[in-house]
Amino acid sequence: MRPRAYRAAKPTPAENRNRPMLELAPLLVSALILGLLGGGHCLGMCGGLMGALTLAIPPEQRSRRLRLLLAYNLGRILSYALAGLLLGLAGWAVANSPLALFMRVLAGLLLIAMGLYLAGWWSGLTRIEGLGKGLWRHIQPLASRLLPVSSLPRALLLGALWGWLPCGLVYSTLLWSASQGSALDSALLMLAFGLGTWPVLLATGLAAERITALLRRRSVRMAGGVLVILFGIWTLPGPHQHWLMGH
């Protein structure tokens, strides 16, 4: 009897469904870490605003401070996810064109620049934040009308408006997420990034001095900057990606 030819087992429908999620999982973890390590930048960019929002809570609402701070940050994170979805649609539209490679290269370069900024080695990236000042000029008066914050829906809406504050770290991550070529993946990555920034800004609002002091330390900022730079290098297309994926 002739031996039967060996045939590789075909992946099951369940495995086919799980494969995109398995590919997305490392990117979600990376986005979460990027938000957490960018905490030093968040303290400088949004720490003062977080303190101002906390002071804007009326005295009779101080017992609900934690819930109001959670609502602020939830609104901000949902804005990040919405921005990721909108820009992700543009990324999806150009996913199979030469522009996709350009977006990937630009995203990698921006992440490297953000790592240099976080480590305190170069601050040129702050100029990118000027791109969003025109939009923020129209949003800021709307946000001012919501003060003082007297309810959870009001805090949620104020946080959603706050999410559009010009920020080089957000812009860099947004472009990187959009370069994945999927609107849904882009929204999920920005959601994960926003969740990563949550502990830092929540600690700032609650006056958690130990956490904020730790994230202000130069060694922590440098370590975070180096990791973001390495992630930016990994994002750049090239033969090094095949080597990294193989290891």
Please tell me about this protein's structure:
The protein is globular, with a radius of gyration of 21 Å. It has one domain (27-210). The longest helix has 29 residues, at 65-93. The protein has helices at residues 13-37, 39-55, 65-93, 98-118, 133-144, 152-162, 168-178, 183-205, 209-216, 218-235, 239-246. Helix 2 crosses helix 8 and helix 3 runs antiparallel to helix 8. The chain is mostly helical. Mean pLDDT is 78; it is low at 1-17. It has eleven helices and no strands.
Query: How many helices does DSSP assign?
Result: 11
Helicity, as a percent range: over 70%
Q: Spell out the helices and strands N to C.
A: HHHHHHHHHHH
Low-confidence stretches: 1-17
Provide the β-strand percentage band.
Answer: under 5%
Ends: how far apart?
Answer: 42 Å
Mean of the pLDDT scores? 78
Largest sheet composition: none
Q: Please state the structural category.
A: mainly alpha
Integer-rounded radius of gyration = 21 Å
Count of the domains: 1
SS elements, strand count: 0
C-alpha geometry: globular
Gist?
The chain has one domain (27-210). 74% of the residues lie in helices and 0% in strands. The chain is built from 11 helices and no strands.
Give me some keywords for this one.
247 residues, disordered N terminus, mainly alpha
